[in-house]
Amino acid sequence: PSLYLGSISFIIGLSSPGNPKDDFQEELVIRPLHSGDIYASFQFRTVWETDFMRGNKVSHYRLFPKSLGQVISKFSVRELHISFTQGYWRTMQWGQPFQPSPPGAELWVWFQDSVTDVDGTWKELTNVLSGIFCASLNFIDSTNTVQPSASFKPLGIGNETDHRFLRYATLPREIVCTENLTPWKKLLPCGSKAGLAVLLKSEKLFHSSFHSQAVHIRPVCQDWQCKTTSWELRQTLNVVFDLHNSAQGKREWSLFKMFSRTLTEACPLASSSKIYIDITDNPQGEQFEVSPATPLLSQAVVLGDRRTFSVYDLTQQITFGTVRSLNLLIRWKSSEGDMLRPLLHAERYVAGYGLQTGEIHTLMYNNHPYRSFPVLLLDSVPWYLRLYIHTLTVTSKGKDNKPSYIHYQPSKDRLRPHLLEMLVQLPPNSVTEVTVQFERALLKWTEYTPDPNHGFYVGSSVISSLVPSIVAMDTNSTRERPLFSSFFPCKEESSYFVRVYTEPLLVNLPTPDFSMPYNVICLTCTVVAVGYGSLYNLLTRSFQIEEPSPGLAKRIANIIRKMRGVPPL
Amino acid sequence: IYLFTYFFFLLLYIAFMLFIVFDNAGQFFSSGHTNNWAVLVCTSRFWFNYRHVANTLSVYRSVKRLGIPDSHIVLMLADDMACNHRNPKPATVFSHKNMELNVYGDDVEVDYRGYEVTVENFLRVLTGRLPPSTPRSKRLLSDDRSNILIYLTGHGGNGFLKFQDSEEISNVELADAFEQMWQKRRYNELLFIIDTCQGASMYERFYSPNLMALASSQVGEDSLSHQPDLAIGVHLMDRYTFYLLEFLEDIHPASKTNMNDLFKVCPKSQCVSTPGHRTDLFLRDPGSVLITDFFGSVRKVEITMETINLTDPINPVNGELQIRKYSYVDQLPVSEIIHQKPKQKDWHPPDGFILGLWTLILLVFFKLYGMKHLKHIF
C-alpha cells in the first residue's frame, strides 16, 4: 500500500507542472556506546525546490510545514538553526555527536542582505518562534544576543558572508519537555502517526541522559551544477539512553526497550526511510549481536572515520518479516575494547571563592599525537560578570600561546553581553588553558528572578575547529549520502569541521535578603517605640504619692469616728 | 356573551401560542455564545508545589477532552514539574496516587511557562494589551460572544494571590481587569474558579455583569491538599480540584448537567473547607447554565449549498537563470580570519565631556602663556 501511495503521489507530482518538487527522507542511526549506553539519532529532511524570496507568495505547501515557510518569507531568513537540549554531552565517554548542541536553547540566524533593521527583525523572529515551539524564547533580547565575527559561518550555500546579518543567542536555563516535542512532531509530514516518528514517545525520551531536538533550515544546491537553490529543512533528535535507567543494568537494547514502540511501516510520504546500526567495532560479531540480521551493509565517512553500518530499509516490506513489525535487538556479548579517544574536547569551570571575584577557566584538549590544529573559541558572558580582559591568559604546556586573532566587544550594563572570540592554535597532545578574571555586579532588586538563590547561568562556550581526519573526507556534496554524514559541508579531504560546546556555568551573584524590608520595618518600629516611649515618659511623667487604702477594720473605725466628729486614724 | 367568550378563548389561544414560540426562541438564544476560551494559570514555583501544576493540568485535560482546542486555551505554568530533575518519572504529572492518571499526557502545549507567568502578563492576556509581536497562541482573542473559563490556583490569602513567591495580585486588580474586559466587550459570560487558601476573598470585589465565581474555601479557611504519593514524595492534588476532576470525568460533550451540580462538588465532609460561589452578577439562572457552556466548546456549523470558486494556484515565474555558481562557505577560513580587518566603527562627533575638557586645556594654556602663541599655531 505504501508503494501505491508513493506512485500516486509521484504521478500527481508529475501532472501539475507549476508545482515545485519536494522530497522527504527519514533515518535513524543507532550507535551502541562503550559504556553500555546507546545513542539514537533521528533525522527528518524535507527538500523543496522553491524560492521564498522572490516576489510571488508561496501558497501551496505540501511536505514543507507552512508555519516555518511563512517565518522564512516574512523575516527574510537565510538560515535558521534552533536547538533545545536537556543534559550535557559527555564527549570523553560518548564520542562526538552527529549534531552538537549546548544545554538549554540555542538560536542562530543568518538574515538575507535585504534586511534593513536586523535587530528589530531578530526580536520579532524570537517572539514568533516562542509561539511555534512553546518555549520562552521571548527572553532573548539585546542582553544575551551577540554578533560573532568569525564563528558560525553559514552551513548552507551562499557567496557573501557579512557578519552584520548574523545573530546568535543562548538561553542556558530553558527546559525541554513534552510541550516542546509536541509542536516539533507536528512539523513532520507524517506527524507522529507513521514512519520513524512513531517511536518518539515523551515518557521514554525524557527519561534519558541526554535529549536534544533541533530544527535546521538552510538553502542547498539543487544539483551538481549548483546554479539554483532549494530549501532544506532538517529536524534532528539525538537521545542517549542510560544503561541503568532504561535497561535495568542489562546490556541488551531493543527498539521496544528504548522507545516502548516497534515499527510497522515507513512514512508513505517518504522517499527513503532507513535505520542504520553502527557495527564498526563489531566486524565479526564478537562484541554484540544484532537481530533480525540484515544483508544490507553500508559504509560512510563521518566525523573523520570510516564507519560500517547495517542498514534496514523500511520501504521494503521484507524488513518487517512475517510478524509485520520490526523490533531491533542488540545484545552485548563481551564488554572489552575501548573507545577511540576524541581528538578535541573542552571543559570549563569557575574558580575562586567569595561573592565578589572569580575566574573562568576554559580547558581545551588536543589528543592528536603529532598534529596541531586551529580552534576558534567563542565566549559570550552576561554583563553582570564584569570581565577583566587585561587578566586574559592563554597557556599551552606551561608556555604562553598567543592567539592569532582576537575579537573582543566589551559589555554595556543592561544592554549587551561580553563577546570574546579567539583563534588559538592547539599544539599536539596538549591542554590549552584560557583564564580570565571577573567581578560580580550588584543587580537592582527588580532584576532578580523569583528564585535567585539558584544562581545565574552563563552560556556554554563554542569551540569550532577543523580537526585532521584519519580517512579522506568526501567533498562531493551531491552524491547520495546518508543524512548524518552530510550535515556539515566538507571543503577539503584532510580535515573535518567539528563544533564542541563546554558546560554552562552557574554563578551566584550577591543576593539580597528579600525579607529585609519587613524585618527592617519591624526592628525600626520596635526601636522607635521603645526609645521614644521611654524618653517621653522620662520627660513628662510626674510622681504623686498616694496612700494605700486602709483595711476593712480601719475603714469601719474611720466611719464611726467621723460620726463622732473625731479626726480619723 | 358568546362573542365575548369566543374572543376570550381566542386571546387565550394566541397567548398560548406566543408563549410556546417565545419559549422556543428563548431556548435557542439561551446560551448566547459562539466560542469558548479557557485561561488556566498555575502561579506557584518549586517542586513542593507540584499539586498546583497537577491541578491546572487536570482542568486543562478536562477542557481539552470536552472540545476546546489548544488554540483557544491559554495555559500558564509557573514551573516545570514534568521534566524537573526531582521527578522520578520524567514527562509525567500524576493526579492520583500510585501513578494512576497522567494528566500531562503526550499532547500538551504550554503557552506561558517559567518566569513568563507574572501578574503583568496575566493581566495583559486578560485585557488584550499585548505587544504587537506576541504570537497568536499567547493571546486571548475573545469577542463579545465568547464564554471564558478562568482557573487560578496557587497560594493565596485574604484578598490576594501570590505569583511565583515574589509578587501578588489583589482582588481589586482582578475585579478591575474583568471590568476592562466587560467595557471592551471581551466576554459574553465568564466563569471564575479559584483553588487557594481563602479563595472566596478573591471574588468579593467583582462588579461587572455576567460573572460567576467558585472558590475552594471561605475567608479565614485553608484549602487542603489531598493525598501524597510516597514514590514522588509530594502531595499530588488539592482536595477541591481532585473532586472537581472526578466530577468532570463524568461529563461528556452532550451532557446536560448544570451549574447547580458544580456548586455541590466537594462538600465540607470531603473538602474540610467550605467551597463558596457567587452568582448575583450572573444574568441567567445557574440551573439553566450547562457545564459544557464553559468547559466544552460550541461549534456552530452552517451548511451551505453555495458554490465557491477557488482561484488557480500561483505558478512561480521562472526568472532568469543565475549565471554565477553557488558554493558552500568555508566553515573555518583561518587565513581569512587572521587577516580580517577590524570593523570600522561609525565615527561619532566627540562627546560633550571631551569637548569641554579640551576647551579647558586650551584656555588654561593660552591664559598661562599669553595670546601671542596663538599666531604660531594658526
TrEMBL record, chain A:
Gene: pigt
InterPro entries, A to Z: PIG-T (IPR007245)
Protein's name according to its UniProt entry: Phosphatidylinositol glycan anchor biosynthesis, class T
GO cellular component: GPI-anchor transamidase complex
One Pfam family, short name: Gpi16
Organism: Dicentrarchus labrax (European seabass)
Origin: domain of life: Eukaryota
BP term (GO), one: attachment of GPI anchor to protein
TrEMBL record, chain B:
GO molecular function, one term: GPI-anchor transamidase activity
Listed GO CC annotations: GPI-anchor transamidase complex
Keywords: GPI-anchor biosynthesis, Membrane, Signal, Transmembrane, Transmembrane helix
A biological-process GO annotation: attachment of GPI anchor to protein
Catalytic residues as annotated in Swiss-Prot or TrEMBL: H155, C197
Pathway as given in its UniProt record: Glycolipid biosynthesis; glycosylphosphatidylinositol-anchor biosynthesis
Pfam families per the UniProt record, alphabetical: Peptidase_C13 (PF01650)
InterPro entries linked to this entry: GPI_transamidase, Peptidase_C13
Transmembrane segments: 6-22, 352-370
Domain of life: Eukaryota
Subunit and interaction comment: Heteropentamer. Part of the GPI-anchor transamidase complex, consisting of PIGK, PIGT, PIGS, PIGU and GAA1. Interacts with GPAA1. Interacts with PIGT; this interaction, via a disulfide link, stabilizes the expression of GAA1 and PIGK and links them to PIGS.
Family recorded in the similarity comment: Belongs to the peptidase C13 family.
Protein's name in the database: GPI-anchor transamidase
Species annotation: Dicentrarchus labrax (European seabass)
Gene name of the encoded protein: pigk
